[in-house]
Write a structure and sequence with these properties.
alpha/beta, binds adenosine-5'-triphosphate, about 15% strand, 4-stranded parallel beta sheet, binds 6-O-phosphono-beta-D-fructofuranose, ATP binding, 10 strands, single chain, PyroP-dep_PFK_TP0108, 14 helices
Length: about 350
């Protein structure tokens, strides 16, 4: 449509700008890629060196850069835009929101999220089948979501087989009235089985407390998480073993990388077409420094500064989380926390008098 003769793919993420050869992209080479999982270009964590990246853009005579990835990637794209501006180059920089975590703000959803929710159903279903097959069966499924629990929340809502969904945005506790163990005992007495879905970033403060974790980061600066799925499974087993009145059989399923690796589903394929085409139309129309996305169902160009100023997380006072709570009937875990906070505040106030 625009008569473009040359499209280069940069391999291996930001590092690829200055460490790898480029991959020529033609209609023929990309013809089937939507049917495969993963990425033909490859990806990486860390390695963003703005100066070297813009040097490479300049040296290669690139005039439009399309950057595909999550919230970290979009932050990196903004830095590239700023450096391009400083150098006065005529190069358009465009972001395409792709991450299963759905943690990019402003837009309705990121490419990949829908697929992840759909694929998670298979793991939840397996956990349910296993739990239902034995007396007091418990299925635990861990899903991705470092800081945002969208996959866990939507997968739970879609499945209806989940009894308890735990996400990073809402704290929980195990012991005592209103706690997880009390709820699990009740649910097992009522139904004879239960399924727990836990996002990888949930309850990290509890895990850290109990296994003295070190505060490590990956190359991109993201916090490295402890396996909360294993942790909660062990805690459940220990609790019911100690309590002796009810023996449980627990199966833990970690489908996280299997979910991330599947080809995108039909709805994500359509969304991707929309994102890609709009991104190109925007750059060709002369815009730069924007991420392409749907906002309230309408195609929009969102300036990088709006995309990078926050992270999309589940708002637990919003209706979607309320819908989840009423669908699972799980405890909100908020009452005890607010009582503890209130008591601490009272203690502090009396100390300050
Ligand atoms: N603030 C930032 N400035 C510059 N580059 C960044 C920044 N944050 C992240 N990046 C770079 O963006 C790339 C991807 O970041 P990250 O590993 O956090 O993944 P992401 O894009 O958030 O996607 P996901 O977490 O969904 O896999 C990395 O190369 C990282 O160095
Ligand atoms: O182990 P890796 O490849 O760094 O990826 C794990 C992270 O990637 C994400 O899926 C985003 O792609 C996060 O939810 C998860 O924490």
């Amino acid at each position: 449509m625009y008569g473009v003769k040359k499209v280069l793919g940069i391999s291996g993420g930001y590092k690829g700008f200055y460490a790898h050869n480029t991959i020529p992209l033609t209609p023929k080479t990309v013809n089937d890629i939507h049917k495969r999982g993963g990425t033909i270009l490859g990806s990486s964590r860390g390695g963003h060196d703005t100066i070297k990246i813009v040097d490479s853009i300049q040296d290669r005579g690139i005039n439009q850069v399309y950057i595909i990835g999550g919230d970290g990637t979009q932050r990196g794209a903004y830095k590239i835009l700023e450096e391009i501006g400083k150098r006065g180059l005529k190069v358009a920089v465009v972001g395409i929101p792709k991450t299963i975590d759905n943690d990019i703000p402003v837009i309705d959803k990121s490419f990949g999220f829908d697929t992840a929710v759909e694929e998670a159903q298979r793991a939840i279903n397996a956990a349910h089948v296993e739990a239902e097959s034995v007396e007091n069966g418990v299925g635990v499924v861990k899903l991705m979501g470092r800081y945002s629990g969208f996959i866990a929340m939507y997968a739970t809502l879609a499945s209806r087989d989940v009894d308890l969904c735990l996400i990073p945005e809402t704290p929980f506790y195990l012991e005592g009235p209103g706690g997880l163990f009390e709820f699990a005992e009740r649910r097992l007495k009522e139904n004879g089985h239960m399924v727990i879905v836990i996002a990888e970033g949930a309850g990290q403060e509890l895990v850290t407390e109990s296994i003295q974790a070190m505060h490590k980061q990956d190359a991109s600066g993201n916090k490295l998480l402890q396996d909360v799925g294993l942790w909660i499974s062990q805690k459940m087993k220990d609790h019911f073993a100690k309590q002796k009145t009810m023996g449980i059989t627990l199966k833990y399923i970690d489908p996280t990388y299997m979910i991330r690796a599947v080809p995108s589903n039909a709805s994500d394929n359509v969304y991707c077409t929309l994102l890609g085409q709009s991104a190109v139309h925007g750059a060709m129309a002369g815009y730069t420094g924007f991420t392409s996305g749907l906002v309230h169902g309408r195609q929009a160009y969102i300036p990088f500064n709006r995309i990078t100023e926050g992270q999309n997380t589940v708002v637990i006072t919003d209706r979607m989380w309320a819908r989840l709570l009423s669908s699972t009937n799980q405890p909100s875990f908020l009452i005890a926390k607010s009582v503890v906070e209130e008591n601490m505040k009272e203690e502090e106030d009396s100390f300050n008098l």
